Amino acid sequence: MNKKAIIVVMIIAFLIYYPVIYGLKDAFIDDNGRFTLEYLLDIINRPNIINALKFSFEQALLSSLLATVIGSIASLGLLILGFKGAKTLRSLSIIPFMAPPMVVVVGFTSLFGEKGWVTSIFPQLRFLGEGFWGIIAAHVFYNIPLSLNFTYSSFVSIPREIVDSINLYSSGKTVFVFRKVIIPYILPAMISSYTLTFIYCFTSFAIPLSIGGVRYSTLEVYIYYYYKLMMMPHKAAAIAFIQYLVLLSVVFIFTFFHGKTYAPPIGYTHYKLGVPKPLKAILYTVTLLVFLYLYMPLFSIIYTALYNPYTSEINLHGFHRILGLGYDPALGTELALVYFNTLYYAMMTAFLSLVLCSIIVYFGTEIVDALYVSLLAISPLTLSLGLLRAYSYFLPPPVLIILAHTYAAIPLVIRVLRIGFERIGRIYVDVAKVLGEKGFTLYARVIYPLMRPSYLVALSLALVVSLGEFGATFFLSTNKTITLAVAIYVYRGVRDWQASGAAATLLLLITSIILLILSRKMERWL
Questions:
Q1: How would DSSP label each residue in 6-57?
Q2: What is the pTM (predicted TM-score) of this model?
Q3: 20 to 30 Å CA-CA from 47: which of 250, 295, 347, 431?
Q4: What is the pLDDT of residues 241-259, one digit of tens each?
Q5: Per residue in 441-451, pLDDT tens?
Q6: Taken in order 447, 452, 453, 458, is the CA torsion positive or negative?
Q7: What residue ranges define each of the domains in the chain, with the CATH number in brackets?
């Protein structure tokens, strides 16, 4: 990497990490600019923070374990059973994984809440819509697709000759096949998906805030409480610093095992393994139940949008409210502005993330992995805290929100563009360089055309991340900058369940259309 490339990548890294460092420094610097440990010591001695730390660990450990086990079994079912549509089901699992957090909240409460249609039939299942188990259920829902795709990729990376040998010689030796062949291949992927799921669950904000309440608050929720409600920025920074230390240690584990995860070859084919009929029956049942669990909350959102729990009537009140583009007193702004914000932030996020990640992937191939992994340790509210402390004096809230959305999209966009870049035949690039192409023209005339499918996938993921992002938007927004995701939370706050359901339905429809258009293309990057 030449000096110019090093300078470019360093500038981008500085732009990304500067606000985070600036926000975390408040944990150690008082208002007079002096170093102190007062805030950190005060925070670690508070019972509510200790309880939040314990709860963050407990729910993340349990959620990750359940999601990893269930997702791995489902991936095994999709692969071994090899039924028609298995490939499509796997591709479509991206929709639950990328569903906006507030949409998932509405989906689970419409199923298992006080007025949920499932709990109206089976009231004993209400525990899945609130409190500790409600948080676990929602986190497991979110991360089953992650585990499913990680382990699926490892399954299909098993060399074909090994698969043929298994089918030929291992009849009746299922335990031996799993112990000697399958588990060694998929174990690194399972541990990798477990640690990544742990990170997502540990930093969860929207689900504990909406389903858990104060009793079941994560550290991420307490960052919000201390900064926005209690007006204690130094103590909020101290909480963010503690959380950052925990995440860094988990990220190291993820890096180690992710490097040992097998990658599927380009153009791989699906195959069947010979397994006993009882195991097939179990796999069919589990796979069916898993996908019902993934899609029932999404489809049930329409129930919330149409059913008025106060009058027990079916009507279109929710859609009438959210589709009236005038001023909404609950939101404190015009709905037309809410839609404009949502789409504008998404487009700007897609543009910025694609530009930044293209530069990083092209010029900084040596640091792509380090940047991708290190960003996982930065939670949305830690980033938002830093953006407010570093830039709020001269940047307006819309710009801060776009920056937060961009940073949230970068890990996914970088992963997609990096894989696309590595799959380009190096001979094309080398020939272009010999013919005099270099710098921007090389990228624009040679590399970009070869990477166009990667850019389409990266663009769609960046749009979906921005459309559904809640934590940073909620932390940074004012009445004039809220998005549709925040509007869902506000409508829930004023107990207009139909409006929240209608807004969630609309947001899910937009994100699903984007993902469905490119779902088959995405399979190569899942």
A1: HHHHHHHHHHHHHHHHHHHGGGTB-TTS-B-SHHHHHHHT-HHHHHHHHHHH
A2: 0.87
A3: 250
A4: 999 988 888 887 777 666 5
A5: 777 777 777 78
A6: positive
A7: 3-27+36-525 (1.10.3720.10)
